[in-house]
Amino acid sequence: MLQNMLPEPAYRHGSIDKIGVLLVNLGTPDAPDAKSLRVYLKQFLSEPRIIEFPRWLWWFILHGIILTIRPAKSAEKYAQIWLPEGSPLKIHTERQTEQVAALLKEQLGIPLVVEYAMIIGTPSIAEQLQHMKAQGCSRILVLSLFPQYAASSSGCVLESVFTELSKMRNIPDIRTVKHYHDHPDYIAALAQNIRDYWGKYGKPNKLIISFHGVPRKTLEKGDPYYCECQKTGRLLATALALTDDQYQICFQSRFGFSKWLSPYTAEVIKELGQQQTKRIDVVCPGFVADCLETLEEIAIEGKEIFIGAGGGEFHYIPSLNEHPEWIKTLGNIIQTHLSGWMEQQALEEESTQSRARALALGAEK
Ligand SMILES: C=CC1=C(C)c2cc3[nH]c(cc4nc(cc5[nH]c(cc1n2)c(C)c5CCC(=O)O)C(CCC(=O)O)=C4C)c(C)c3C=C
Ligand SMILES: [Fe+2]
Ligand SMILES: [Fe+2]
């Protein structure tokens, strides 16, 4: 449909094309207030890959109930974790992007354009793809920052990317990373982060490995998310040499009344509290940046549940954030997926330079 194509920057002969890397995370509200939360939740909960429910019925539930109650309640939660510089999710994603860009520049010696985008809110995937094209990127690698693939997380990233590409006249070469749940470097970074924590604060009686939940129905419909979470959890426990009774995998953040993946983190924590467990540590390997779901739901609410039920010490182990092993891992995953492109880029640069030299010689004569 030609008339729907987006305007294109003018084609320039002989310009050196660049390679771009786009890191994508979920997105976060602009401020911890009810107005910003309303905008954020409306966009989030209108996404068909997040809410698989008949559209017309959902429209009434969303506008009639959820968007009248939830924004104020969620804003109060966000206010408890908001940093002076802004939302933790955004701050960590920005820092990860800057740090991996610096690492790749040092390792590869050729300039890459490294940006981040969000599924919900800003900067959007659409605007960042356009921005990268405007900077001359003719090859773009999109890395979904969710380690485990779910239709509602990495699936959303891929759909947004392909929708935006479908509107372009001059479509860049594109590569995508949909998951890396069992990548040895990711598992090693998670294990190192935990060992660093235990080195400072000692070890718990049990390690709770908690992932964001999704509706149970999605597993029955073929979503690999549950199995990928189990595999990450198992590999992590093996890397830490934990026995079966020293760890438990569970799922948090249930939304609504339908069955979600289980066991539910809140119930597991409560039971361990009731059994008067001396100490539990919770880690959330599905979130590579700390956010509302880790800092509020686990570190604040989870702690209240455990202590309230009679448990002893509760520790939340921070996400990978800017851990050096994680930045190295990101760099390694990116480099693996750029294979072939780097060599092509070097050849193109060489031929553009020799053409420029030949033209300059011709002009001298
Ligand atoms: C309503 C259904 C939801 C599905 C399905 C879902 C999947 C899903 N989400 C993440 C990661 C994050 N979710 C975050 C917040 C959040 N999640 C939902 C609902 C669903 N998520 C809501 C309504 C919210 C908003 C907060 C609230 O009102 O409770 C966040 C935190 C964002 C932040 O700003 O800090 C993350 C990250 C994954 C990985 C996932 C599927 C696997
Ligand atoms: Fe979520
Ligand atoms: Fe939550």
Short descriptors:
365 residues, alpha/beta, Rossmann fold, four-stranded parallel β-sheet, 14% strand, binds the ligand C=CC1=C(C)c2cc3[nH]c(cc4nc(cc5[nH]c(cc1n2)c(C)c5CCC(=O)O)C(CCC(=O)O)=C4C)c(C)c3C=C, binds fe (ii) ion, iron, heme biosynthesis, EC 4.98.1.1, metal ion binding
Bound ligand species: ligand L6N33NVT, fe (ii) ion
Spatial order of the strands forming the largest sheet: 2-1-3-4
Main beta sheet strand tally, sense and closure: 4 strands, parallel
Regions with little confidence, pLDDT below 50 for 5+ residues = none
Task: Give the quaternary arrangement of the chains.
Answer: single chain
**Overall radius of gyration:** 23 Å
Strand content: 5-15%
Number of strands: 8
Gross morphology is globular
| CATH topology (level 3) name of the largest domain | Rossmann fold
Task: Describe this protein's structure.
The chain is an alpha/beta fold and 365 residues long. It has 2 domains: 17-181 and 324-340, 3-Layer(aba) Sandwich (Rossmann fold), CATH 3.40.50.1400; 184-316, 3-Layer(aba) Sandwich (Rossmann fold), CATH 3.40.50. Helix content is 50%, strand content 14%. The protein is built from 13 helices and 8 strands. A 4-stranded parallel β-sheet has the order 2-1-3-4, sandwiched between helices. Helix 1 (34-45) crosses helix 2 and helix 6 (184-201) packs antiparallel against helix 12. The mean pLDDT is 95. Bound molecules: the ligand C=CC1=C(C)c2cc3[nH]c(cc4nc(cc5[nH]c(cc1n2)c(C)c5CCC(=O)O)C(CCC(=O)O)=C4C)c(C)c3C=C and fe (ii) ion (2 copies). The site of ligand L6N33NVT has 23 residues, from helix 2 and helix 10.
